[in-house]
Structures
1.
Amino acid sequence: MIKEEEKMFIINTYNRSPEHTLLLVRGKGTLVYDDEGNEYLDFVGGLAVNALGHSHPDVINAAWEQMNRIMHTSNLYYTEPQVKLAKCLVENSAAGKVFFCNSGAEANEAAIKLARKYMKLQAGRGKYEIITAYNSFHGRTLATITATGQQKYQHYFEPLLPGFRYAEFNNLQSFASQVNEHTCAIMAEPVQGEGGVHVATEEFFLGLRRLCDDNNILLVLDEVQCGMGRTGKLFAYEHYGITPDIFTLAKALGGGLPIGAMLCSDRVASGFAPGDHASTFGGNPVACAAALAVMNALLRENFLKEVQDRGRYFREKLEKLKAAYPGLIKEIRSRGMIAGVDLAAGAQAGAQAVQRECLQKGLLVNCIGERTLRFLPPLNVSSEEIDSAVGIFEEVLVETKKN
Ligand SMILES: *Cc1c(COP(=O)(O)O)cnc(C)c1O
């Protein structure tokens, strides 16, 4: 009934189909259950949202307690969770100040507005261009599809926002060649998530930082997907030993509740004055209380080290598969608990079919593109769950060879 009514009442932007996707009703840890009581290992993880798994008691309790106190106030008034969360984020990052919103796209919108305004104040009205990477993903609003260097997200929505240029990811020379007197910022993901799990090289990111410093340009990092412990560090830029001027968070930040954040240095934060930017729901006390519970869990001793260890374990298991079936797996890319697997020519069925077959066997994975699968398990997934997931993946891969 729900599946049929979805077609009738919801605009078809997600292309869900009753035969190929599930009606999920319940989740606990890495496991989710459909309306028929079937159990699945969730290696989609709400698209990098459920970093602590489903129904984490700390997140539930924090949100529940806050809901009982006060659920929404508007930003005309102070609320405690908002300030506590901002303090926690600042104390554990390179940022000096935070702006709260409700999603990744909104966090990037805030970053784009702030970069333009700060640089115009600092260096003149002609400073407004932002260079982003091909194959990037920054969201679905008009400004963020413009920032997203993939035409498939832009087609038919033109005219796009003026003032964007694109360069090749992991190619410093390409970025350098796009810098001109109008450039105000460079924006990039430390790991391109939607674009196929491509990890920025150290050479590239150190080079971007230097390029920005040499030319008085802001470095904006989109950590919406790869932040919040996903890569084994609290924030992915920590792998490079660099400091972004602005960075954005969302997805895992609220542990399942919608919240986004744009963080920046104190210096850059001075670009915004009262009235320049706002959000009715931004910094909602329930979402902030949940996010604070997520932060506290990630900051617990050894948590991130265990993410690194389990990430390595997962990678090794996938590498063993690749070694066993070189005709089926072409390449594996990962950092911590985000992994992408490119299928080789022998896996004739393609990524979509592998995703469907995995689902039939009780494993949720995410197909991104015709030949690539993405794995985003909870950060606290167990090694037994990794074993089971890789086991199912192997079975399905072997079957696709036969078909
Ligand atoms: C998901 C994502 C976004 C968009 O976030 P929404 O909450 O869907 O608006 C932006 N940037 C990156 C890197 C993402 O992965």
2.
Amino acid sequence: MAWSALYLVNFLWAMAGSSTQSRSSCSVPSAQQPLVNGLQVLMENSVTSSAFPNPSVLIAMNLAGAYNLEVQKLLTYQLMASDAADLTIGQLALTIMALTSSCRDPGNRVSILQGQMENWVPSSTSTQASTFYGPSLAILALCQKNPETTLPIAARFAKTLLANSSPFNMDTGAMATLALTCMYNKIPVGSEEGYRVLFGQVLKDIVENISIRIQDNGIIGSIYSTGLAMQALSVTPEKPNKEWNCKETMDTILNEIEQGKFHNPMSIAQILPSLKGKTYLDVPQVSCSPDNEVQPTLPNQPTTVPTSASNITVIYTINNQLRGVDLLFNVTINVSVKSGSVLLVVLEEAQRKNPMFKFETTMTSWGPLVSSINNIAENVHHKTYWQLLSGKTPLNEGVADYIPFNHEHITANFTQY
Ligand code: B12
Ligand SMILES: *[C@@H]1O[C@H](CO)[C@@H](O)[C@H](O)[C@H]1NC(C)=O
Ligand SMILES: *[C@@H]1O[C@H](CO)[C@@H](O)[C@H](O)[C@H]1NC(C)=O
Ligand SMILES: *[C@@H]1O[C@H](CO)[C@@H](O)[C@H](O)[C@H]1NC(C)=O
Ligand SMILES: *[C@@H]1O[C@H](CO)[C@@H](O)[C@H](O)[C@H]1NC(C)=O
Ligand SMILES: *[C@@H]1O[C@H](CO)[C@@H](O)[C@H](O)[C@H]1NC(C)=O
């Protein structure tokens, strides 16, 4: 009897896993629907034929139901044409899921990714958790395409996560939850009980780590990790000890959207599925019938406040205490920029005033990343990067999005992850 009960429970989980559980208590109120439509339009319109294709945008628009079919087609073709050899593990995984969400065959990309994950060597147990973000995407993509052959790879990945001792990272925890939930739901009947125990144990640990980081206002981690965390909490078979109030999270996020916090297309791509009650686990179920292009109801354009032409002063420090004994520096400059300028303008103004503040950026899915300052460049092998801080607090946006205030002290500190 106990046996059949266990079987029934497992069976029900398998069913629940095949689609996102209904969360009717946590959907966008109809009054705020135009706000969400506006966000989706903003994301879709960010796509241009010159920019490198962003698979996360295609996944989000397909999960939400695309408005702009031209953009959908363009992104799909660009991704079909991309060469797997130029992509990282995570980018390849996103490309596979994006093509799947457009009902295209990702071709040999799946076997290439599988080969890479079979050879994947997890570094030491103290490796920063965020380095598991790309591999989590890989397990998720492989699970959706080929769950049985992915089992041993996912088991190795899960054991590595369990053994890791570095501080918890919300985005990575959320992505690992999606990946291992997919695997958990697809363990073949009659296979070793060990897989279920292992995946269940890791999921329980991660979900507990997520739940203790739910703030009183519903934000999970930071506002930019909340979208992925919502996806994770809505699919996981392991429920957290502390109950999650999804409606509270939704209300706060909608409020942040109204404040204009989600204008970066990538930030929209990561929040939109949750606003539509979807998760990355729904990617294989997207229906691609060529339905009519529905025109969304958009919000009334908020009257943009004319920005005053006055200037502000930003105190800007560049600090390298890490690399090259004879190259260490810690210098500060005051720069004057137009009020409302993004941080990038401050860096450009500093560079113009003093050549020591010379910097370079690299284009990424999130926009320009500051890759080098005063000839000191980030390096993946050394795990070094330029961290941006306001006072002692790390910024939660990059240079093209963050708007400094008057007399703010911004530091770019060369450090390790
Ligand atoms: C890993 C990671 C990093 C690593 C990347 C290097 C590495 N090899 O691991 C490091 C530690 C360098 C990093 C740095 C920063 N990060 Co970061 N990062 C992530 C994380 C957890 C995963 C990214 C990833 O692997 N994606 C998967 C691959 C397949 O996609 P990809 O496009 O190829 O990934 C690249 C970009 O994401 C880029 N990148 C990573 N972070 C950032 C941040 C910005 C602003 C930009 C432009 C690019 C960028 O590096 C990735 C590897 O090359 C994401 C979480 C998320 N939800 O996306 C946060 C995330 C993207 N980072 C974020 C932030 C805020 C930063 C910093 C600004 C933090 C700071 N105070 O300094 C800095 C960038 C500063 C600068 N020099 O310009 C935010 C961005 C939010 C926003 N609205 O802009 C995120 C979403 C985390 C969060 N939830 O708040 N990050
Ligand atoms: C959960 O958080 C604790 C403390 O930060 C950490 O030791 C543990 O490894 C985390 N577990 C997972 C699976 O991330
Ligand atoms: C760098 O300079 C700042 C401001 O001048 C100072 O507060 C800080 O202690 C310095 N840090 C190091 C490591 O020298
Ligand atoms: C820079 O600004 C700060 C505060 O706004 C001020 O104390 C400092 O003297 C200024 N430094 C220079 C070099 O102008
Ligand atoms: C105001 O800021 C702009 C850059 O945004 C700069 O070019 C200009 O010199 C500043 N004006 C003054 C008076 O500092
Ligand atoms: C700047 O980076 C150095 C080297 O990693 C580190 O020791 C220091 O604590 C960092 N400073 C801040 C303010 O984070």
